[in-house]
Amino acid sequence: MPEDALKIVDLTKTYSVSMGAFRGRRPLHAVNGVNLTVPRGSVLGLVGESGCGKTTLAKLILGLEKITSGEICIGGQAISSLGSKGIAKRVQPVFQDPYSSLNPRKSIFKIISLPLRALGVAGTRKELNARVDEIMDIVGLPPTLKHNYPNQLSGGQRQRVAVARALIMRPEVALCDEPTSALDVSVQAQILNMLMKLRRELNLTYVLITHDLAVVDHMATRVAVMYLGRIVEEAETGALFQKPCHPYTQALLKSVLTPEPKLGVPEAHLGITYPNPIDPPSGCTFHPRCPRKKNKCTDTVPQPIIKSGRLVECHYPDSFQFVDTN
C-alpha cells in the first residue's frame, strides 16, 4: 500500500457570522466533519457547487485558516506541529489565474526562486540558478525567459511559471485550484498533460479543486463530492462517473454541457435556490433539492456508508448501485 501523502480526520471549520444589530451571531460550518485520505502519487478531484466549502478546505490544508477541530496530516505529520514554513515546504498551491498570482514587478527568476529564498534553502547563487534552470526545463519553459516579466509571457507560459514556483520545493502535495479555467482550451490541454507528466516523473500528489468534470475525469484517480461542508460521496473516478450513487452527484453529472447545440442546456433539477449555510436544512441537508426524498430524509442525518471502496451519505443507498472496481 502506498504511503498517505495527505490525511484529513474529522476536520471542521466554523465561522461566527454577525446577523446584524441586536440579533447576535450565528455559527457557519464551512467544513463540517470532513475525512479524506490521499495516497502518495494519486490525484484527488474535489468537486461541488460554489459555496460548498472547497476553498475553505484548501485554505485549511495550506495553513491559511485555523482549524476549529480535527486534524490534517501531511506525510504522517500533523500540520498543527509544523508551523507556516513547515507547511509551505510540504504543500504548495497552483492558483486559478496565473496573471494575478504572479508579482508583475518580479522577474520569472525571482518568482520561481521565491519559495527557496523565503524558506532559507536557496544555497549559493550558482545553486539557486541551477535549480531554477532545472525546474524551468521540467515544465517546458526556455531558459531565455528567466529574466522576463509576467506581462511578457503568454497565459500558458505564466501558468507554467506558477507550476514551476509550486514544484521547485518538491512538495509532498500540490494543491491545484482551477489550474486551467483561465486559459484557452488548447492551452488547457497542454497544461493538463504537463501536470500528468510531472505526476508520473516526480511521483507528485495532487488535490485538484475544479468545477470542470471533464478535467476531473482526465486527471483524478479518485473523486470526492462536497455539499454544504460535507463529503457526500467519494469513489474511484471510473466508478463514480459510471454509476454515481448520491442524487447530488447524479445532478452534477447531468449538468455537464455538451457540444451539441440541439440538446440545449441540461436540466439538473436542483432548483435555483442554494440552502442557507447559516441555517441549513434539518436531517439530510440535500433533502429540499432531492427528487427521491422520503420522510426520513427531512429529520434524520444520514450516516456515511462505505462499500466496495466508495463512500456515500444517503439514507437509501439501495436506490443506487454500488460498483465494485476491485
Biggest β-sheet, characterized?
Answer: 8 strands, mixed
For the record, what is the CATH homologous superfamily label? Answer: P-loop containing nucleotide triphosphate hydrolases
CATH architecture: 3-Layer(aba) Sandwich
The CATH first-level class comes to Alpha Beta
Tell me the number of strands. Answer: 12
Strand arrangement in the largest pleated sheet: 6-7-8-3-9-10-12-11
| β-sheet strand percentage | 15-25%
How many domains, in number, for the residues?
1
CATH topology: Rossmann fold
Mean pLDDT: 88
What does this structure look like?
The chain has 326 residues and is α/β, with parallel strands linked by helices. The chain is 31% helix and 24% strand. It contains eleven helices and twelve strands. Strands 6-7-8-3-9-10-12-11 form an eight-stranded mixed beta sheet, sandwiched between helices. Strands 2-1-4-5 form a four-stranded antiparallel beta sheet, with helices on one face. Strand 4 and strand 5 (77-78) form a beta hairpin. Helix 4 packs parallel to helix 6 and helix 5 (125-138) crosses helix 6.
List the helices and strands and how they pair.
Elements: E1 4-18, E2 25-39, E3 43-47, H1 54-61, E4 69-74, E5 77-78, H2 83-90, E6 91-94, H3 98-101, H4 108-118, H5 125-138, H6 155-167, E7 173-177, H7 185-202, E8 206-209, H8 213-219, E9 222-227, E10 230-236, H9 237-242, H10 247-254, H11 295-299, E11 304-307, E12 310-313
Parallel strand pairs: 3-8, 3-9, 6-7, 7-8
Antiparallel strand pairs: 1-2, 1-4, 4-5, 9-10, 10-12, 11-12
Essential attributes:
326 residues, disordered C terminus, alpha/beta, eight-stranded mixed β-sheet, globular, Rossmann fold
